[in-house]
Amino acid sequence: MTDYDLIVIGAGAVGENVADYAHKRGLSVAVVEAELVGGECSYWACMPSKALLRSGHAVAAAKRVDGATQAVTGRVDAAKVLARRNSFTSDYQDDSQVAWLESADIALIRGHARITGEKTIEVAGETHTAKAAVAVVTGSLHQLPDVPGLAAAGPWGTREGTSAQEVPESLLVIGGGVAGSELATAWASLGSTVTLVARHGLLGGMEPFAGELVADAMRELGIDVRTGVSPTRVDRDEHGLVTTTLDDGTTVVTSEVLAATGRKPHTADLGLESVGLTAGDWLEVDDTMLVQGTDWLYAVGDVNHRALLTHQGKYQARAAGEAIAARAQGRPVHAEPWGAHVATADHAAVPQVTFTDPEVASIGLTEDAARKQGVNVRAVEYDLGAVAGSALQADGYTGRAKMVVDEDRGVVVGVTFVGQDVAEMLHAATIAVVGEVPIDRLWHAVPAYPTMNEIWLRLLETYGRPE
């Protein structure tokens, strides 16, 4: 039996942050990992997917500037892109991540953890106990849609979609969410003939113009985007080709099929039933990430289903690590909104970038979501391509921006940008929303000219200056 103050189950980016922040406050910490230290984001999600996308974005951006476009004489070198992607995953080796744990004085336990009782886990037949807390940071898993024949056809999930070592001649992507849209864009830029099918439009839950502009750009890239349709049958033949039948009666034949239709909690085999919880469920937590009904079990990141984004999970991890240490040491826990030990931003201030081309960068509430919450809303939009900085960024720049304002409080509660290179503009909007900066004060935040950030002035002018 080995004792630690805190045991973290899952050594991905989120688990590493829980461990690090608790250890910095003086706790002894161990993390348990069944696969690679660094987790999903490092090897099968954030980093490799963006590496697959970046080269295509760079070439497309060059082609949009006269004088530069003449220098673009070939296609993206797919082999070089895949090699660069592999470099970002350290060729799927976790030596450097393990070295970081060692340097941070955090113990690593290899293997699959099962909770066997309060503050107790078992790994490979060995029992480990936590004096203060156990944190479940196991993330989420790809969920295969229930389509006849799909499972037997050996489909790609998001892992295969980010780690494949060869470009398929053709690819069908099922799902028009963030993962499906990004991976369709990536593989099309690498030379695959891509078809994307989505039950509704693209990027549901965002401002409607986001999905519309992304769909238009996908079609220009050569992707066959079909919305309002779903697969009813999938079959792979003896030659390896996949035939997908859609509910409109058409069929699509491709080399591979990728399902990107949702996630499920990675909690089915953790032994949660030993402490009165239901295996396979999302874990409900308070704002310090403490699992409801317990005083020792925490759930951080995707597994609590608050915001399935790595950066938001790491934000939760910082709060949880600090809260665990404070409680263990008998120090005050600041659990009030925006306190040091809570993840208040999860509720209405979550930033997200979809790395399609154009990019979609958003923070906070959409107009529809705000209205459904009963907020007295006024929203304004502006053509991002009409801003001088955008015109310099790309010839014929296409984009749009929207600002959602809570009229009763006079603060911005949501912002969405769609366009080339908007990702790096998002943090200013995040600060405006999280800081609840009054509209009349935003007039004094002068955007440098000529940059794309002048969109803020145009949105404010459209909204109207106070008298």
Automatic annotation (TrEMBL):
Gene Ontology MF annotations: oxidoreductase activity
Cofactor field: FAD
EC number: 1.-.-.-
Keywords in alphabetical order: FAD, Flavoprotein, NAD, Oxidoreductase
FAD/NAD(P)-binding domain: residues covered: 4-312
A family per Pfam: Pyr_redox_2
Domain Pyridine nucleotide-disulphide oxidoreductase dimerisation: 350-456
Key word Plastid present: no
Broad enzyme group: oxidoreductase
Keyword match NAD: yes
Lineage top rank: taxon: Bacteria
Family statement: Belongs to the class-I pyridine nucleotide-disulfide oxidoreductase family.
Protein name, UniProt field: NAD(P)/FAD-dependent oxidoreductase
